[in-house]
Amino acid sequence: MGVLVTVALAVAVTAYPAVVAGHGTAKSSDMPNMNGEYPFSTTPGGTPGRFPKQYSDYPGDVEFYDVYSPPITTLYSQVWWRPLDPVDFPAALVKKYAGKGMAILGWEIDQVRRTPDGDVSVPISATYNHHFTATMIGAAARFDKVTLTGPDDPRAAALKEESHGVLAYDQPHYVVTQVRDTTVAGAAPHTVCSSANGGEYRKS
User: Fold this and answer.
1) Which pTM was predicted?
2) Which of 97, 188, 104, 103 is nearest to 141 (CA)?
3) In terms of DSSP bridges, do strands 133-137 and 72-75 run parallel, antiparallel, or are they unpaired?
4) For the chain, how far is it from start to end, CA to CA, in angstroms?
């Protein structure tokens, strides 16, 4: 019998400026980073220590919103290699930034088991997470669930850029379709965030 492991990825999206409103959002000054202080290398010839290692130290303050992925369930030795279904941003975030641009200053990730007593962080030695990539869309775009016809499918090119050039053609994928112009000049209808690989993803 295999050991069944179910985890969810907890993602904190940090935005600017800070106005606390509703459940699931807080000013960064109210809490520490999700994964502790961030290490930074100093640019050659630069002055060390000038870039904040805590979001709470960011000038002007910021706010964060928590988002959970759908469950990821695997048996020992199995590899998870398929897209997760989209999840909505918290309603407070959507309401606050409707018709506006939002500057994303950072995102933090943890893999957790959700329990009645709260989240329990799952160590990388128990469930290895090589990469996690998230595509975020605004009101000017939508996700379309598609099944690719093969490597020559023109929709595959953009997806390959987010997955080391390898796609599972036997599984559905989500592509972004822009449905109208953005209401803010220069704002992108969607963006992609990617973590570092292996255990570094908690600090990337």
Assistant:
1) 0.80
2) 188
3) unpaired
4) 35
* Contact criterion met (CB below 8 Å) for 133 and 161: no
What is the Cα–Cα distance from 109 to 195, expressed in whole angstroms?
Answer: 8
Confidence class of residue 85 from pLDDT cuts 50, 70 and 90?
Answer: very high
- Residue 118, classed as helix, strand or coil, is strand
Pairing of strands 4-16, 63-68: antiparallel
Residue 86 burial (CB < 10 Å; 0-12/13-18/19+)? middle
Q: What are the tens digits of pLDDT across the range 14-57?
A: 655 433 333 344 555 567 888 888 888 888 988 888 888 888 88
Instruction: Please state, in angstroms and rounded to a whole number, the distance separating the CA atoms of residues 90 and 161.
Output: 28
DSSP line for 26-73? EEGGGS--TT-PPP-PPPTTS-TT-S-SSGGGSTT--EEEEEEPPPEE
Q: Which residues contact 172 (CB under 8 A, 6 or more apart)?
A: 83, 145, 146, 147
* Residue pointed to by tokens 């600090």: 203
The position carrying tokens 């599984």 is: 171
CA distances from 94 to 8, 102, 170 (A): 22, 10, 34
